[in-house]
Design brief:
The chain is of the alpha/beta class. It has helices at about 10-15, 45-60, 145-155, 180-185, 200, 220-225, 250-270, 355-375; strands at about 70-75, 80-85, 85-90, 95, 105, 120, 135-140, 160, 165-170, 170-175, 175, 205-210, 230, 235-240, 240-245, 290-295, 300-305, 310, 330, 330-335, 340. A 5-stranded parallel β-sheet has the order 6-17-7-8-13, covered by helices on one side. Strands 1-2-3 form a 3-stranded antiparallel β-sheet, with no helix packed on it. The longest helix has 22 residues, at about 250-270.
């Protein structure tokens, strides 16, 4: 096993200080290792995640080579040549488990932002104290965007949140964590070959959730109450002005509809005793701004919470699509002996969550074993 940094490197180096897991502790597990603390319904801090992964690495006895970055992977007559910072390796099979969130996505329109405005990504952000005083524009309203907008607003800064497509979820539903419902009702176990639009499912935004001790819902209504200003999707920059789309009502309605459908699924699995419990619809601002002058000093910092993408610059095997993503069938790539793990909806909807990797890994390793057993 090759790791470019330390064990749990991305949790150590590429997360902000206050981040907690979205999954409750009882659901955070790896093969042979479960949460054994006193707060099963809580959410791990980054330090606790690092400790959890370190204990798993030590307990499993996996041969992890830390400080070993991969610079090239190419085919050979009998498998693959892996070039690393510690020298080359030859092997018959390779599992790419580098994840889908190696680099932050920043739209090209960032080039039109005035130089006086600082621009950061979630990889750069550590906490409000590290940013310049003054207003902040957070771009993106998935899990990262809403969490950072809430933290920055609590710090006393004026915050504007640019909202595009998003996935809305309550933290608790009918007294239980919403992820308990996902787990118990079998939603997370839905297989990739049972999903009608797999491409869309693999690109869905991460849900608006936060793992706070209060187990509170962090949606756009909660942010509005806290004082965050909502604007539409950032569409362009013109003469130092950010221009936003005017379609908030439709964006909100779509997110609310998807949430309703999911809660209907839970109620169909376990019918409620009384009327269905439903969160209030997302409130549309009376007059959302359509533009914002970035030259006047109102906004001192822009936080780009616009998603992440994988990094396969080192991959010299033709297994990528036009957008630079791995083409695979449940983690099995088109090049014999090459596999992937840890990608969205790899084999199940839970594939990118810590507890979801075990079933995927078992299936992929079974295929890998058959490949190794086959005559050369």
């Amino acid at each position: 096993m090759l790791e470019r940094g330390e064990v749990a490197n991305s949790w150590r180096r590429e997360r902000w200080d206050s981040l907690r897991l979205l999954t409750p502790n009882w659901l955070t597990r790896l093969p042979g290792q479960h949460y054994d603390g006193l707060d099963p319904d809580g959410y791990m801090t980054m330090g606790e995640v690092v400790d959890f992964v370190e204990r798993f690495a030590a307990g499993s006895g996996a041969p992890v080579r830390t400080g070993t970055g991969v610079t090239s992977l190419r085919r050979t007559d009998d498998g693959y040549r892996v070039t690393t910072t510690a020298g080359p390796l030859d092997c018959r099979t390779v599992v790419i488990a580098s994840g889908a969130c190696n680099r932050p996505v920043v739209p090209a329109l960032h080039e039109g932002v005035p130089a006086a405005v600082e621009q950061v990504t979630p990889f750069d952000y550590r906490g409000p104290a590290k940013l310049a005083d003054g207003g902040v524009l957070v771009v993106g309203a998935s899990a990262t965007g809403v969490q950072l907008a809430a933290e920055l607003q609590r710090s006393g800064r004026p915050v504007t949140l640019s909202v595009g497509e998003h996935t809305r979820l309550p933290r608790l539903y009918r007294g239980r964590d919403v992820l308990w419902w996902m787990h118990a009702a079998g939603v997370w176990d839905q297989r990739y070959d049972e999903i009608d639009d797999l491409t869309r499912a693999r690109r869905l935004p991460s849900p608006q959730l936060a793992g706070t001790p209060q187990r509170s819902t962090l949606d756009l209504n909660a942010l509005t109450v806290a004082g965050v200003e909502l604007v539409g999707r950032w569409a362009a920059v013109r003469d130092g002005r950010a221009l936003f789309s005017g379609g908030l009502r439709n964006v909100f309605a779509l997110a609310d509809l998807k949430q309703e459908r999911l809660l209907d699924t839970f109620d169909a699995w376990d019918p409620p005793a009384g009327a269905p419990e439903r969160p209030a619809p997302t409130r549309v601002p009376d007059s959302a701004r359509l533009q914002l002058d970035l030259r006047g000093g109102e906004i001192r910092t822009i936080v780009w919470a616009t998603g992440f993408r994988p990094d396969y610059d080192w991959l010299d095997v033709p297994v990528l699509d036009a957008k630079g993503r791995l083409e695979h069938d449940g983690g099995v790539l088109g090049s014999p002996g090459l596999y992937a793990l840890g990608l969205p909806v790899l084999r199940r909807r839970k594939s990118t969550f810590i507890h979801g990797i075990e079933d995927d890994a078992r299936d992929v390793v079974e295929h890998l074993s058959r490949h190794l057993a086959a005559p050369r």
